[in-house]
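Lab notes, practical 5.
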Amino acid sequence: MDTTTASYKLIKKIKDEKFDVDKLHLYNLMVQIGIRDLQVAVVDSTSNRTLLLEDYVLASAKTHSQFLTILQSLFEEHHLLMAGFWKNVRISLKNSKFSLVPSSLFVKEAAVDYLKLNSKVNTDIEEVLYYKHIKSDAICIFAVNRNLHSWIKGLYPNADVGFIHQSSALIEGITNFEQSNKKNTLYLYIDRFKLHILTLKNNKLEYYNQFSIKQFNDYIKYIMLVMKGLQKNQQKSDVVLWGYIGKQSPHYQEFYKFIKNISFGDRPSYLNFGYLFDEVQDHHYFDLYSIHLCD
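Output from the prediction step:
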């Protein structure tokens, strides 16, 4: 059922029959926050079963305080998001204020300086956080609005609350996928208004970047640019795709014209899904599911 208010709209919801409101202390809550959308997933920590999936589109906000008001109204009208006794809470942020640094070069005190190389940072209103990748040699430094950060921390005083950047979820998810894939593959994640491109070498991150998309041709342009830079042959290279694109869509047919060895990625094997999730295509919500890997 669609829930519509002035500020947000629920466009997808799946609730597993095994969801039990009395067991929230055993469940992990994963929330991914973008400028214009938000996703929620709940996973049972004892069985790794995915029990809830929700996808919201948010109204456009002109200021950060407007944006925070939209989020607060969504949370306040959502009986589960306001519950304080989850086992752990992971918040993934979708923004372009991030920087990836090899762990051998990382100095904690210089985190703000690394970030300033890539984006404008205002430490008066932004918290600079970092996440050390488990399977890769990278450290992701990213910014989060201070009011948003403190509001979320205040919601869950008794839970283990961690913040990551969307790029970290994708890197961990794809590193995990590559362990059983073992090909010299280019990985794509197609988000709303963004394209993410990743490659790995010897199970370590080789390349990651995200690109803003205004029209469909931008996808092809950036993919070709990255392939050329990495010296990958567009006719022979394997390309695996996740994200908001349908298997029968005209956009997928366009991709196929340019890249012959393109295929859709699977749902992660480390999570279990009941039959109610069959209505979600396997290559959707890969970034949301991958938050599960980010401890």
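Observations recorded by the TA: Residues 25 and 86 are 5 Å apart (CA to CA). The first strand starts at residue 8 and ends at 15.
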